[in-house]
Design a protein that fits this description.
single chain; 640 residues; mainly beta; elongated
């Protein structure tokens, strides 16, 4: 049997493995030398067994192909051990995942009980005072894109645009020496003060620094130049953007004993310590009344104000940015955290009627209303970003103001550029447009915030009965049915990220209009059998996501549980979850996507599909569709 002990996950982050590092396969002992870092470590050296299933994605409707048949499974632990013990290996923690949040809670609670009308009317009245102080520490930072091949072939479209200005003097020529070392000669003939004259030799130790040529004209950055119809990254290598390279061998050089350039600090990860604090308090009154109508019926009334604190991880301070040049225009993301989140506060009103029409039977109906403020939500829209490539490079710089991070289309000066890698991207039309809206990078920006307000009102019906009037073994039968109707809506409000965007009045997230469950059970002599069916209608998942909204499709699941008492001390149990193999699907609708449409006056018309729960908006744009499958558990409970 194959040993898969290395297949365990690992939270360690493996950073740079430099050129010329000797590493060893932890299992076979094979020794190999890296040329460009971790990309030279073969997957066979860190493999750990076969793909664990043979029907991957089959239940989602996908056929068998080279993807659904599975792929090589690798071990993070093996990758760690392959480089373990080498002095040239850096293990770089991501500081932006480090945070500490402390909450100091103080509360006072007063409550009084009362009874009137010969105890037919009972209840209690109370008030709670809560004060909370939040102190949070953490890191803001950016994970920049870096050339994964450690060649420094990332390009800034604004820098290339400047190179096409023919009014500037010609850039100095590439220093070719007629040998075969063309790559290094092209790479190091830089014009920005980080270049070197290779002197035509193989070693880099005798290279001579080149001066900064200043603004200059590069004919090779213009299409239809003497080298070809399209521009080529090889010819422009010396003009690449090296400001965020993880394999940082630019600028002043140092060499190891073998003559290899020793990389400087990793420029792809930048972070700085941040801290924030917040304080809030709340007064929470409550009144509960119970009235016994007769021996079988009870009426209940409750009014209260309640609060729920934000998720503790949402209280971390600062922001995190991840830049990606691959995929669509919103592959890069910004997350804005918020220590100053206030707790959700809700004014609640509940009215219910209960009828115990037999000893083990209940019918209940209830009306409820909630008026909520300060609920925690995430809004996600597409924005631009300030250029952070100089962040943290100069000691003594003033701390970065997070308020300057987000940019909109009407203010794109000093934006983060939409950087490129590869000849295809270099020759795309937008890269020659001169239009900042196309040449600035767009980010899918998520802000954790307090919502303005929302309300939920609804009706709940419940029926429960054990049929103990039946003879013999059937007397343990019972049923439970529950149905809830909810009508909810957020208040319309202006986005705090972009004042041109209005967050729509949609149903409250994860509050389905219809939810229901039905259970059939049997219990007798310590044994039990239970079959439960649950279902919900479609519901909102996030009202602001990527210029639209996310919705979760309704689900229906069936669960089974059983237990058998061997004796008074030992019970066998069996549970089966999601027997229907129901999946979870999230889909998207547009609210304010700009597809380039204009009205008769030339004004932009945003693509608004509306609410798919009320209208004809499509439900076909799947964002996430997954299945966890059926789950079976067998257990033994023993009492001593």
């Amino acid at each position: 049997m194959e040993d898969n002990s290395y297949c365990r996950g690992s939270n360690l982050i493996l950073g740079n493995v430099t050129e010329g590092t000797v590493t060893r396969d932890p299992v076979t002992g094979e020794v190999f030398t890296t040329v460009r870092g971790m990309t030279d470590i073969s997957g066979t050296n860190i493999a750990c067994g076969e793909f664990p299933v043979d029907n991957f994605m089959e239940s989602l409707g996908y056929g068998r192909d080279n993807i659904t048949d599975g792929w090589a499974v690798v071990s993070a632990e093996k990758a760690f051990m392959a480089a373990l013990g080498n002095t040239d290996v850096d293990y770089l923690p991501d500081n932006t995942e480090t945070r500490l949040t402390e909450l100091d809670n103080q509360a006072v609670y007063l409550k009084g009980n009362f009874a009137f009308l010969d105890d037919r009317l009972t209840g209690d009245i109370g008030v709670r005072y809560v004060k909370t102080t939040v102190e949070a520490e953490g890191y803001s930072g950016v994970n920049f894109h870096s050339d994964p091949n450690n060649n420094g072939l990332v390009f800034d479209p604004f820098a290339l645009e400047a190179l096409r200005d023919s009014t500037n003097p010609l850039c100095p020529d590439i220093l070719f020496y007629g040998g075969t070392n063309w790559n290094d000669e092209t790479r190091w003939s830089r014009v920005d003060g980080q270049g070197y004259d290779t002197m035509g030799t193989e070693t880099r130790e005798d290279d001579v620094p080149l001066p900064d040529a200043g603004a200059c004209f590069e004919p090779l950055a213009v299409k239809n130049n003497w080298a070809g119809e399209e521009i080529a990254e090889w010819w422009l290598w010396r003009h690449s953007d090296t400001s965020t390279e993880s394999f940082n061998i630019y600028g002043e050089r140092q060499f190891d004993e073998d003559g290899n350039i020793i990389p400087g600090p990793d420029l792809s990860q930048r972070s700085f310590a941040v801290e924030d604090e917040h304080e809030y308090s709340a007064v929470l009154p409550s009144l509960n009344l119970n009235y016994v109508i007769n021996d079988e019926m009870v009426g209940r009334f409750a009014v209260s104000k309640t609060m729920a604190r934000p998720q503790i991880d949402s209280l971390r301070p600062g922001f995190k940015v991840v830049e990606s040049i691959w995929g669509d225009r919103t592959g890069s993301v910004i997350t804005l955290y918020n220590t100053k989140l206030d707790p959700l506060e809700s004014n609640n009103l509940d009215l219910s009627f209960e009828w115990y029409f037999s000893e083990n039977a209940l019918f209940a109906a209830g009306l409820f209303y909630k008026d909520m403020t300060n609920f925690e939500e995430s809004q996600t829209i597409v924005t631009y970003m300030d250029d952070l490539r100089d962040l943290g490079l100069n000691e003594g710089d003033e701390p970065y103001e997070a308020a300057d991070l987000i940019k909109q289309a009407d203010d794109l000066e000093n934006c983060m550029p939409k950087r490129m890698q590869g000849n295809v991207m270099l020759n795309e039309d937008w890269a020659f447009s001169g239009d900042p809206e196309q040449m600035c990078a767009q980010f899918r920006t998520t802000q954790i915030k307090n919502g303005k307000g929302a309300e939920i009102k609804g009706l709940e019906l419940q029926y429960t009965q054990t049929y103990d009037m039946l003879p013999g073994v059937f007397s343990g039968l019972g049923t439970m049915f529950n149905y809830t109707f909810q009508d909810s809506a957020y208040e319309q409000e202006v986005s705090s990220l972009d004042p041109n965007i209005v967050l729509p009045e949609l149903p409250v997230a994860y509050t389905p209009e219809h939810s229901y469950n039905a259970t059939v059970f049997w219990e007798q002599n310590g044994h039990q059998l239970r079959l439960a069916y649950q279902g919900t209608s479609d519901q909102l998942a996030q009202r602001s996501w990527n210029n639209g909204a996310l919705w979760q499709e309704g689900r229906q699941t069936l669960d089974l549980s059983a237990s058998y008492a061997l004796n008074d001390n030992v019970t066998l149990s069996f549970q089966a979850t999601n027997l229907t193999d129901e999946g979870v699907r999230t889909y998207y609708t547009s609210r304010f996507m700009d597809l380039g449409e204009v009205d008769a006056d030339g004004n932009t018309v945003l693509f608004d599909e509306g609410n798919p729960l009320d209208g004809d908006a499509t439900k076909s744009r799947t964002v996430v569709d997954y299945r966890t499958g059926r789950t079976f558990r067998v257990g033994v409970q023993a009492r001593f």
